[in-house]
Write a structure and sequence with these properties.
The structure is a single chain. With 393 residues, the chain is α/β, with parallel strands linked by helices. The chain has 2 domains: 2-69 and 95-160 and 258-391, FAD/NAD(P)-binding domain, CATH 3.50.50.60; 163-256, D-Amino Acid Oxidase, Chain A, domain 2, CATH 3.30.9.30. Helix content is 38%, strand content 22%. It is built from 11 helices and 15 strands. The protein has helices at residues 10-21, 47-56, 59-65, 102-115, 148-153, 226-232, 237-244, 284-301, 304-309, 315-347, 351-377; strands at residues 2-6, 25-30, 42-45, 67-69, 71-76, 81-86, 97-101, 119-122, 138-141, 161-172, 186-191, 195-201, 207-214, 251-257, 269-271. A 7-stranded mixed sheet has the order 6-5-11-12-13-10-14. α1 runs parallel beside α4, α1 (10-21) runs parallel beside α8 and α2 (47-56) crosses α8 (284-301). The chain starts with a strand and ends in a 16-residue tail after the last helix.
């Protein structure tokens, strides 16, 4: 059985690994010359995403490429501590959240895909209906929120729209060991007046940060600068200190949301990752990894490779597996989308809502956090068949 994967980011590389594990021949097409090149900023993986990486055989390499983050601290703009909980896991889960550069995550997954026998073609755009793909039994649309595959699966599919936020990320040389908000192995989120500000002290002594700023009218990305951010967060002292020590080069992007995608699979084409559901809430990479594994389990569970070898597998088998995959993912992703919308609204709360949040969160957040998020972090996509990839032709 042969698969074509569109996109060599997290979703595409993870699906290539998973499909090779169940015996499929895989070719990945990536429009950018270097799919692991410098783009985006850092990404944090919660326990559910880490279990997915373990199923793919990539967990140790990802852990070695990043650093563990034990705790998540929530702050008001005035510096009041609003919450202190385990980061991305239940308190008794030994699988500690990992933060790393997104490009390093993609690089690890891409190398694992190549080692598994996948072919990755970079610097070349391709379309699902390209004549060269006629022999493919499966086409995986893993080409992100601006997916070309989405409209190919459904011409009436929704398109991304501006979310009223932009994100800017960078690195600062802030040296305050042990100070509030600068403790090692902590993920810090501050609810500032213009939006949310995240910062993590790293083992090398720098601070990684990301600002999510409310802007009803989408700004020109090239005009977003350190000066822009300093002006926006001028009332928040800690954020101001971090930005004052920032390196001049920052990565900026406009945030977009996508309405629910009603058609996520066709007879031999399926959307995964941000192409199907850009969920946000710090779970984009983890959901893409989950997608890749569960898709492969559906295809592998049908033993299509074995039936193809005897001439009994057909297009209907693939279509049925894709339909089952979409149904299996629907409830979980829908629930996460609602949580992401709530988180997004909290980052842009008005002054009255912000005051209520600062009063209520210290009382409720620590108490109810695990109950509210356990369903997300407990998820285990389970393993994949092993030792079959050498059967792919």
């Amino acid at each position: 059985m042969r698969a074509v994967v569109m996109g060599a980011g997290v979703a595409g590389a993870a699906s290539a690994i998973a499909l090779r594990r169940i015996g499929w021949a895989v070719t990945v097409y990536e429009a950018y010359p270097d799919p692991a090149g410098p783009y985006g900023s850092f990404v944090s993986l919660a326990s559910n995403g880490l279990r997915g990486l373990a199923a793919l055989g990539c967990l140790p390499a990802v852990q070695a490429s990043g650093f563990p983050v034990q705790r998540q601290l929530m702050w008001s703009g005035s510096g009041k501590l609003l919450g202190d909980v385990p980061r991305g896991r239940r308190a008794d889960d030994p699988l500690v959240s990992v933060t790393l550069n997104r490009s390093n995550l993609v690089s690890v997954l891409r190398q694992a895909a190549l080692a598994a026998g996948a072919q990755i073609v970079t610097g070349q755009r391709t379309a699902p209906d390209d004549p060269s793909h006629e022999r493919a039994d499966l086409i995986v649309g893993a080409d992100g929120i601006w997916s070309a595959c989405r409209q190919w699966v459904d011409p009436d599919a929704p398109t991304p729209r501006y979310a009223g936020l932009y994100t800017a990320s960078g690195v600062s040389d802030v040296s305050q060991p042990g100070g509030a908000g600068f403790e090692p192995a902590t993920f810090n989120m501050t609810f500032g007046r213009p939006g949310a500000f995240i910062h993590l002290p790293t083992p090398d002594g720098t601070v990684w940060w990301s600002a999510q700023v409310a802007a009803p009218v989408a700004p020109t990305v090239s005009t977003i600068s350190i000066d822009t951010l300093q002006a926006a967060f001028h009332a928040e002292d800690r954020i101001g200190r971090i930005l004052l020590a920032a390196h001049p080069t920052i990565a900026s992007t406009l945030n977009h949301v996508l309405d629910p995608v009603p058609v996520q699979a066709g007879d031999r084409t399926v959307l995964i990752g941000d192409a199907a559901h850009p969920v946000g809430a710090g779970q984009g990479a983890s959901m893409a990894i989950e997608d890749a594994i569960i898709l492969a389990r559906q295809l592998g569970g049908a033993d299509l490779f074995g039936r193809a070898a005897t001439g009994t597998a057909g297009a209907a088998d693939v279509a049925a597996a894709l339909s089952a995959f979409v149904e299996l993912r629907r409830d979980r992703l829908g629930k996460l989308a609602k949580s992401a919308a709530t988180n997004r609204d909290a980052k842009t709360a008005g002054p009255i809502a912000a005051r209520l949040r600062d009063l209520i969160m210290p009382v409720t957040f620590n108490r109810f956090y695990e109950r509210a998020t356990g369903w997300l972090y407990d998820f285990d996509p389970a393993g994949l068949p092993v030792g079959r990839s050498d059967r792919a032709a």
